[in-house]
Specification:
By secondary structure, the chain is α/β, with parallel strands linked by helices. It is built from 7 helices and 5 strands. α1 (2-40) runs parallel beside α7, α2 (52-65) runs parallel beside α7 (169-192) and α4 (101-107) runs parallel beside α5 (124-135). The termini are far apart. The relative contact order is 0.18. Substrate binds at residues 50-52, 63, 92-93, 118-120, 123, 173.
Length: 198
């Protein structure tokens, strides 16, 4: 019984990834182009999300500042989920809704990118960060699921919405991780061309 349940997780995950690939590939390509253009112009990427999405935000920033699969110079990415003094001060003095938007206001500039992760598409603090980013003439790449929620309605034509066609949070997060790796790979290929193994 336990083995069957485990197998069902693997099978469902694989099926969702295959279903998502064709739907999301054009949007992921747009995100890569948007991010590469920003980085090439000396801009940076700010990243935010809650819970598992916070871990994904940190993962993405680490891949850019460190490396993905090849040696290269560090790329400017900042996870807005990591400074506990900022997070707790803003949550305490203002509200939890403001923990990311205050940082976008502090660090974001026109031409920067906000990578916003929310499996539901309805995270209030991620929505506030998007509002702050759009006010600062930043572009937004949003990773969502469950139909995109309110976030899907906030984005402009200049932004990119990568909405996983699934409703189960774990499956959405798994596709978000593959998407993050696709973006990291795409940025590296745009910088250097070819394949890492060439």
């Amino acid at each position: 019984m336990n083995n069957q349940r485990i197998l069902s997780h693997f099978h469902e995950s694989a099926e969702i990834k295959i279903q998502s690939a064709t739907v999301l590939a054009p949007h992921i390509a747009q995100a890569i182009e948007l991010m590469f253009s920003a980085l090439s112009n000396g801009n940076k990427i700010l990243v935010c999300g809650n819970g598992g999405s916070a871990a994904d935000a940190q993962h993405f920033a680490a891949e850019l500042v460190g490396r993905f699969e090849r040696e290269r110079f560090p790329l400017p990415a900042l996870a807005l989920t990591t400074d506990t003094s900022i997070l707790t001060a803003v949550a305490n003095d203002y509200s939890y809704r403001d923990i990311f938007s205050k940082q976008v206001q502090a660090f974001g500039q026109a031409g920067d990118i906000l990578l916003a992760l929310s499996t539901s598409g309805n995270s209030a603090n991620v929505m506030a960060a998007i509002e702050a980013a759009l006010e600062r003439e930043m572009r937004v790449v949003a990773l969502t699921g469950k139909g995109g929620g309110a976030i899907g309605k906030m984005l402009t034509d200049a932004d990119v919405h990568i909405c996983v066609p699934a409703d189960r949070t774990a499956r959405i997060q798994e596709v978000h991780l593959v998407t993050i790796h696709c973006i990291c790979d795409g940025i590296d290929v745009a910088l250097f061309g070819g394949d890492v193994n060439e």
